[in-house]
Amino acid sequence: MRTDVIRKSVAALRVEPNLKAGDMAGASFSWAGIRDELGVSPGSPMNIGQLAVDRHAHGDAGTRTAFRFLPVEGAPRDVSYAELARLSNRFANALRSLGVGRGERVFVLAGRIPELYVAVLGALKNGSVVSPLFSAFGPDPIATRIRIGECRVMVTTAGIFARKLAALRESLPSLQHVLVVPEPDGTPVPAGTLDLAELMAAASDEFTVVPTGPEDPALLHFTSGTTGTPKGALHVHEAALTHFATGRHALDLHADDIFWCTADPGWVTGMSYGILAPLLHGVTSIVDEADFDAERWYRILEAQRVSVWYTAPTAIRMLMKAGPELRRRFDFPQLRFVASVGEPLNPEAVWWGEEVLGLPIHDNWWQTETGGIMIANLAAFDIKPGSMGLPLPGVDALIVRHADDGQVEIVQQPDTVGELALRGRWPSLFRAYLGQDERYRKCFAGDLYLTGDLARRDADGHFWFVGRSDDVIKSSGHLIGPFEIESVLLEHPAVAEAGVIGKPDPTVGEVVKAFVSLKPGFEPDDALRRQLLGHARKRLGAAVAPKEIAFLPTLPRTRSGKIMRRLLKARELGLPEGDTSTLEAGA
Length: 587
Ligand code: AMP
Hints:
Elements: H1 31-37, H2 48-52, H3 59-63, E1 65-70, E2 77-80, H4 81-97, E3 105-109, H5 114-125, E4 129-132, H6 139-149, E5 151-157, H7 158-165, E6 177-181, E7 194-195, H8 196-202, E8 217-223, E9 231-236, H9 240-249, E10 258-261, H10 268-280, E11 284-288, H11 294-303, E12 308-311, H12 313-322, H13 324-328, E13 337-341, H14 347-357, E14 361-365, E15 375-376, E16 390-391, E17 396-402, E18 408-410, E19 418-423, E20 432-433, H15 437-441, E21 444-445, E22 448-457, E23 463-468, E24 473-475, E25 478-480, H16 482-490, E26 495-505, E27 509-518, H17 526-540, E28 548-551, H18 565-573
Parallel strand pairs: 1-11, 3-4, 3-5, 5-6, 6-7, 10-11, 10-12, 12-13, 13-14, 27-28
Antiparallel strand pairs: 1-2, 8-9, 9-20, 14-15, 15-16, 17-18, 17-19, 19-22, 21-22, 22-23, 24-25, 26-27
Bound molecules: adenosine monophosphate.
């Protein structure tokens, strides 16, 4: 019979788990211990690229496959640790030949192709700061991020350059070099860009890694808030300690694992766990260049003998939709651990894992700012389906409440909803929102980092996600800021006001829905709706643009003039409107 807990027995696990109940007492864990294991001594240089790749590049370890790239069609391409070291050295030398050095920003904008992975690791070794952009973004989000991040080098493909960047290039003064992966048919790269293949061929594969310090910036990840421009969360080389520790504790990585993280490297999960954590552990990662397809994914689990799989709730729900018969056509006995992140994982999905996949799904929680997994369901621990799990060793998670006098108080009472906060400063905690000091400072209260998520902790110490304390939207696991969408809609000549919400959706979590009011002289008809949807898609990219647009005569605003997205959402869902005392009369 189904209980509300999935019981685990260590004896029944196929490998000895990295973390057992006794280890959670915390005494055995220290960041200094992790540093020792990675061979970094306090005060000496440390570079994520070197730790992830070069550390494994010699001797037998060098022959191990670091990445197996599965192209959309055709044979897989394996890249060993030794080859990855040489290729990333070439890229670092190519950057150096262009005069690009320490601290300068190198952006990558491409699908899951080998060149992207090489560029990320080479740029890190060169001491440059890497910023990945989601390749499904349209020109507007790309340009905004290039400007905020003062991108000096962009690595992309000829097709993406032509569709999204060529027309903007002149308006982006910081962007000095665009390195383009050439088309396989030999077409020359577009004017004004450099051929990445030629640069790589001309570069040496010997490189002395730039001796960055633990606090030197390494990664810049863009994330969205409720208002204003996107925020560039800056992470430092020391973050590698968190990537390594959490790969061990939360993902239970062992040396001979075949690991598949399905997240796109345009987002933080695809960077921290699609690239860095598995390399730090010297394991083999599968990278699939194709988009989601249920049958293809089961085939990959089977054919690639994946042992640890890190995926996301939307993908799991799509596999659930594809039905159990499809799953039964495949056999993947090597798979021993499945984890998920990015959005709430409903208990049904955890149970579907247990019953249909043959393994429960281990939900875990973190966010761009934390740089790595903070709270997780673990291999050797019972699962309460619907819970995000327990704080990892080295993580001090608590629930806080904001008192009327502005003070932040720690809530001791179990099962009380409040804001999730994390105490202290761990290696992968973001060190800045680029150029937005005030916004950064507001995330902290004393030694507490305030996450912006609402949660509760039960009497056993398990954390349960309740919701966001702001209006950002999570669609297919991607964080979307309503303000960026509203701004693009407002640029259309017909639009007077725009308010954007996340509308709950059983598969992708939330879909983006926009409400607009029109300027005089425009008719709220289907033709205009299609025009607005097309305008938004062209400018923002299909992954971000609204899926639905509704016309309203006027949008509800507070007396201070802010659009009340919460009220739009409550009305959309037929929920109580809550406190409307600040609502402007007549709205
Ligand atoms: P991002 O910074 O894009 O990684 O998004 C982080 C946000 O995603 C968090 O602040 C949460 O709102 C949400 N999130 C991440 N993991 C989970 C989870 N396991 N359950 C519920 N929400 C999650």
